[in-house]
From TrEMBL:
Pfam families: His_kinase. Coiled coil: none annotated. Keywords: Kinase, Membrane, Phosphoprotein, Transferase, Transmembrane, Transmembrane helix. InterPro entries: Bact_2-comp_sensor_kinase, HAMP_dom, HATPase_C_sf, Sig_transdc_His_kin_internal. PROSITE patterns: HAMP. Gene3D superfamilies: 6.10.340.10, Histidine kinase-like ATPase, C-terminal domain (3.30.565.10). This is Sensor histidine kinase. The chain crosses the membrane at residues 21-46, 285-306. It comes from the Bacteria. SUPFAM superfamilies: ATPase domain of HSP90 chaperone/DNA topoisomerase II/histidine kinase. Residues 308-360 form the HAMP domain. GO terms for molecular function: kinase activity.
Length: 594
């Protein structure tokens, strides 16, 4: 067997790849799938059709039997009344007065054993007679009171002595009785000599009948219909106080049985079960397992031979691409076969020789340039850090000195605590990025520190959208602008002033606004500062003015790939507002890096 596989493998080495794939597809994919699917489809069609039809037929037969049982029970009870001589005589008797009727009624119910003659039932039985001397009430009523009702009209139009009739009774006032009626009505004409028209109407207990129908736990949805009205169903269509619903699921019917009961033409609809396919699959698991083995074993022999022909060589070619020695690609030593893979392997060796030359002349030189560029950027950042630290520290310490002189150092401890919060962040340059939440804590510490200095002259408000708290910005960004607003806005103004800090998101843009009600700026200086902020560079920081603002602007530009924009608005003697806009895509959330 091994020699045969080796011979097939050597022969396949010279075949074109297209021919190999065609062989693989026919014998390993197309043929097994065709055989398997044909068998499965044939089994399922035959098995599902027969099983489903038989099951639905059995369900319909069981429903018909149970329905007939309830109706026959009602028909039997009325037949006992039909043949009861005493009942017929009582209904034909002409009573002299209402008292005479009442006394006769009590005597009749006591002596005739009426209830025991018809058995115990929860159904309602009422007898009607065309006798004006009968007082309507209890089990006996005058026939004239119901001659206009639809069930009586149905009986009159029928040639049968006993009929089954289903209707929605809107005339019944008590709400405790079901308004859906399944009634068996029988003429009491057993004794032909009687001249008085009599009949008995038995209303089957609909709620009990409907609940019993549901409790049968049929495996499919079942509907018993009369004139397209759903009389009984195991799907919850048995509300006792609403009219019968119309059956409109003809497209889902799997089996239908028509039958007649005492003049009523009824139809049983059994809907297609939803779990037939699953049951059939579980039932045919052994056959499925056999088909799986056929699909695996048949292509296995061909796959072994074909694998040795091109899969192994493709694996060698793939490993060759991954193998690098001293930044050089390695050649394939053992090239075999005359097919496309053999040609690719030879072309790969020629490509390796060319790429190894290019690596030396292009890639390594470019890598060195990138490393130098990264070092230059790190040096620029360090230069920025070294400029901002002493500048910020000087202003903080000046505030502490002024407060100590004015307040005799009674609150120095609190001021030092605020300063410590700021300076810990100021000197910690392990990372240049912090969350807005952390930055705002430094802003508040700084403004509280300045409030010790200015007293009631300085008020501030921080309005930060909660969704912005976890975004990351360069360290000391907002603090720098708040410091500028305090020193250049509030400090030079004798009247009280406010500083507002607002951070929010709008239309996929991240906004930072710092506003002060200080002295403002002249138009000429405003235009100059606005231009510097939007074009901040390392060269501009060599000057001595505006170092803090330009430093913050430059770090924001570097952190957002130059996608940040600055707006500066000011009115001399009134206010100044700085607005920073950053696209949301250029600022990181959830603790990530920018």
């Amino acid at each position: 067997m091994r020699h045969i596989l080796k011979w097939i493998s050597s022969r396949l080495d010279d075949f074109k790849l297209k021919k190999k794939l065609r062989i693989l597809y026919i014998y390993s994919v197309l043929l097994p799938i065709f055989i398997t699917d044909s068998v499965i489809v044939a089994i399922f069609i035959a098995s599902e059709s027969a099983s489903m039809k038989k099951g639905m037929e059995n369900i319909a037969s069981a429903v018909k039997y149970n329905f007939f049982y309830d109706i026959e029970e009602a028909a039997g009870a009325t037949k006992k009344i039909y043949m009861n001589k005493y009942v017929n005589q009582f209904m034909d008797r002409q009573f002299e007065s209402e008292l005479d009727y009442f006394l006769s009624y009590q005597a009749f119910m006591k002596d005739s054993l009426f209830e025991s003659s018809i058995g115990t039932t929860a159904s309602s039985i009422i007898m009607y007679a065309d006798n004006p001397t009968i007082v309507s009430g209890g089990e006996f009523k005058q026939l004239s009171t119901v001659k206009d009702q639809e069930w009586y009209q149905y009986l009159e139009g029928s040639s049968r002595d006993g009929v089954l009739y289903m209707y929605y009774d809107e005339s019944r006032i008590p709400t405790v009785d079901s308004k859906r009626k399944i009634s068996f009505i029988r003429r009491l004409n057993f004794y032909k000599r009687d001249g008085c028209e009599k009949l008995v109407k038995m209303d089957i207990d609909y709620s009990t009948m409907a609940r019993s129908f549901v409790k049968m736990n049929y495996e499919a949805p079942v509907y018993v219909c009369w004139n397209d009205k759903i009389i009984l169903s195991n799907q919850g269509n048995y509300g006792q106080w609403k009219d019968f619903e119309t059956f409109d699921l003809q497209d889902k019917v799997g089996y239908q049985m028509n039958f007649a009961s005492y003049g009523a033409e009824l139809t049983i609809y059994v809907l297609k079960p939803q779990t037939v396919i699953v049951r059939q699959m579980l039932k045919n698991i052994p056959l499925f397992i056999l088909l799986v083995f056929i699909n695996i074993l048949l292509p296995l022999g061909f796959m072994i031979a074909i694998n040795q022909s091109f899969t192994e060589r493709l694996k060698e070619l793939s490993q060759a691409f991954k193998r690098i020695d001293d930044e050089k690609l390695m050649k394939i030593e053992n090239i075999r076969g005359e097919d496309e893979i053999g040609i690719v392997m030879r072309n790969y060796n020629r490509m390796v020789a060319t790429i190894n030359e290019l690596i030396q002349t292009v890639y390594i030189n470019r890598l060195k340039e990138q490393e130098m560029d990264i070092e230059r950027q790190k040096a620029e950042l360090l230069a920025l850090h070294s400029q901002i630290n002493p500048h910020f520290l000087f202003n903080a310490l000046e505030s502490i000195r002024m407060h100590s002189l004015l307040k005799n150092e009674t609150e120095t401890a609190c001021m030092v605590e605020r300063l410590a919060i700021m300076e810990r962040q100021n000197f910690d340059w392990g990372t240049d990025f912090i969350t807005v939440r952390e930055e705002i804590s430094f802003v508040e510490a700084y403004l509280q520190l300045q409030k010790y200095r200015f007293g009631d002259r300085l008020s501030y408000r921080l309005d930060i959208m909660e969704e912005c708290m976890d975004y990351q910005i360069p360290k000391l960004t907002i603090v720098t602008f708040a410091e500028n607003a305090c020193i250049h806005g509030i400090e030079s103004k004798t009247a009280d002033g406010w500083i507002f800090v607002h951070v929010y998101l709008e239309d996929e843009v991240f906004y930072i606004e710092i506003e002060d009600t200080g002295d403002g700026m002249e138009e000429s200086f405003l235009n100059e500062l606005r231009n510097k902020m939007n074009h901040a560079s390392i060269d501009m920081l060599k000057g001595k003015k505006g170092v803090g603002i330009l430093n913050a602007c430059l770090r924001l530009k570097m952190a957002t790939d130059n996608m940040v924009s600055f707006e500066l608005e000011s009115e001399a003697g009134v206010s100044t507002m700085v607005t920073i806009k950053i696209p949301v895509l250029n600022i990181q959330n959830n603790g990530g890096e920018l």
